[in-house]
Amino acid sequence: MLRLRTLALVGGLLIVVAACVRLGLKHVGSRERVAEVTHTPVTGLGPATLAPVQPTGGARRILLDAAALERLRESARAQTEAYRFVLARADEALAKPVDSGYQGFQWADAVADLALIWHATGDARYAEGALRYLTALLDDRLAVGDHQGGDDVVHYDSGYGIRTFGAYTALACDWLRGAPGFDPALRARALGRLERWLAWYQTDGYLRDRPIANYYWGYLTALSFAGLAAAGESTAADGWLAQARKELSTRALPALRDELRGGGWPEGYQYGEYTTMEVALVAEAFRTGAGVDIARHLPWLGDTPAHHAHALLPDEHSVYDGGTWGEHPAVPSALGLSAAVVALDGIGDPRAAEGRWLVRHALPPLRREQAWVGLLADRPSAPERSPRDPAKTSLHLAGEGLTFARSDWSPAATWVSFQAGPWLAEDHQDADQGHFELFRGADGLLVDGGDSEGSATINHNTLLIDDGGRHLTYPPNQGVWGGDRVKTTRFGDDGKVTLAVGDIGEAYAPKCARDGCKTRTVRKATRSLVFVRPALVIVDDRVEVDEPDVKVVWAAHLTKQPALDGDLASAVVGSSRVDVRTLEPAGAPHTAPREPTPSGEGSHRANKPWGPMWRLEIESPTGALTRGFLHANSAGPAAAAPPPARVLNGQHARGVAVRGAGESVGVLFAEPDTRAEATLDGALDVLVVAGLTPGRHYRVDVDGACHVGIAPAEGGAALVATSGGFVRTTARCGAR
């Protein structure tokens, strides 16, 4: 189906509010999936843990327990930076009415900002102001007093506004309890709106049963907050709390536990930041309001500091841009981690200290949008700890199939990403299996080329496969029907080398795969990425197709037009250069069309670059069913010379030797359990042998003539293959 975006239409003009850019442009219409996901309930959240409860938070149930209220007052007394940001926003909202912003986000923030300042200072003006914006959420849509909202205000954009109109009405019902002017009639009106909004979403809201979707978490946040705020007051509110418990136990927590192991958010962190905030605050709200430690059953939440540390690019001004992004380069945010810190602190998780370090030292502060979350997380004297371990410069997210690696933690480091994992999100997840990126410091060398509409494979750095439409549904792009079987089969890092292998063939499965057909143009496709620190990335592709005339193209994206010279493509970006050398297929033609190119319409086909973009293409000759690509990609200073490289051939082994200015590196891909041989072109400082069986012993013998023998062995002086299926040694032979 078409991947559409819905933008706010105000006064007849199409405008994109800053919150819209930061939180993500939405679209209506789901992608087709092969199968429904059946979630196993979290056993720890069964009847014993999530039994019917009366909220235990006293006067305030959602987030503001006694300790949180005291921290607010302490921040006010100390006039901390986080407090000053929220106070400034609250004063703006008092000075004159603010418009709703995109789908009510500015009113939602106004309610939260004003309510927290009231709790921090006791000044009734802020409570009165919060009530005015609560009334706007109940009755209005675009401007305070326009009376264009009401019962159907959350219907727009398939229910996107449930996360603002619904969740913050519920928050106000809790946080403004006892505020001057919050009389029974206004409270009853608020609860009535919530009843109608939630009832509609439960039957008609978009992705209401898809826990890996930002829409779902907007709904679950509203449902949880409403249940916690009003349980015991009505049978409807008791039902909301019961339904929220059921959603958490049977859908939400199992999905985050099983499908997103290691963290990450497949829609992209333009959506993931706000969703992480919602997940974390729902968990903390159940702790403060119902005595249920949801966060203890959420390993995903504890994984967010490590994810954010590795996803942040070396310059700290941009972040990994997988999924939907409206801004390029993608801009980092402290929102998700600030909320995660609140929830992790609530259960005494030491990883809160790592999140706090990132918020304080690596991410921009929450000055305006959701500044109130920064105030909730404000703990000036709390411990912090850097997650940047010099001995751990890579991270693999097993659920999403996403790998990050870098040369070191300096601002000038080389940074690499690699994607090979299942189709998890109904929307916003890109068709980008096999995609990799390469940065040096602030310079994007091989980048994700697609804008917020550029989800199709043609915008990414992977394989483009075209059978003329014989079987493939969106040639030369991937589909969505076999994506649940895409996976990273190997990942390992020994400190010098990071290796990841992706089985990506099923990403090209045709539409009939959802009905169980076995027809495949792409019978097999694997991509191996070997990052040899500090700046060399070897990419090996093996593809098997069903007919010899299938077109297979290796693609990569650059923001500068590359210079093409035989098997070499080079470009200078900022103070850096990238050199892409094709070792296989030998003599393959290189082209670099400027995008966009004719590609067809719709999210699965459209070539939609986010700026000046060139697509480097290397086409495999037709005529054979088995195709292969072998590329040496290197990053270096702009004035450096491209490193020479040559193919290494042998028996049951093949690879490449690259001789850089400071280090010579060889990478051989061997068959795992067969004696393999190859001849080098001289001594090597680093010799990596990949393709082996993890945990098995191997001997790698190099004689004086630079002949390499690789064979399984039984202990002794043998090398043990890492979890990535590789061993590393040196080759001291011949002339250097």
Structural description of this entry:
The structure is a single chain. The protein is α+β, with helices and mostly antiparallel strands and 736 residues long. The protein is built from 14 helices and 28 strands. Helix 4 packs parallel to helix 6, helix 6 (165-175) runs antiparallel to helix 7 (184-204) and helix 8 (214-230) runs antiparallel to helix 9 (235-258). The protein is elongated and about 90 Å long. The termini are far apart. Mean pLDDT is 92; it is low at 1-39 and 46-51.
Runs in which pLDDT lies below 50 for 5 or more consecutive residues are 1-39, 46-51
Oligomer: single chain
Silhouette: elongated
Count of domains: 3
Instruction: Indicate the CATH architecture of the largest domain.
Output: Alpha/alpha barrel
Q: Strand order, biggest sheet?
A: 27-25-26-23-20-21-22-24-28
Please give the alpha-carbon distance between the first and last residues.
57 Å
Number of helical regions: 14
Helix content: 25-40%
CATH fold-level name of the largest domain: Glycosyltransferase
Assigned CATH superfamily of the largest domain: Chondroitin AC/alginate lyase
Summarize model confidence as the mean pLDDT.
Answer: 92
Number of strands: 28
Biggest beta sheet attributes = 9 strands, mixed
Per-chain topology:
Blueprint: E1 9-10, E2 13-14, H1 18-23, H2 66-78, H3 81-95, H4 105-121, H5 124-139, H6 165-175, H7 184-204, H8 214-230, H9 235-258, H10 269-290, H11 299-311, H12 335-346, H13 352-361, H14 371-376, E3 394-397, E4 402-406, E5 414-419, E6 436-440, E7 443-446, E8 463-466, E9 487-493, E10 497-503, E11 522-532, E12 536-545, E13 551-558, E14 563-565, E15 568-573, E16 576-584, E17 590-591, E18 614-619, E19 626-637, E20 645-651, E21 653-659, E22 664-670, E23 676-679, E24 684-690, E25 697-702, E26 707-712, E27 719-720, E28 727-731
Helix pairs in contact: 2-4, 3-4, 4-5, 4-6, 5-6, 6-7, 6-8, 7-8, 8-9, 8-10, 10-12, 11-12, 11-13, 12-13
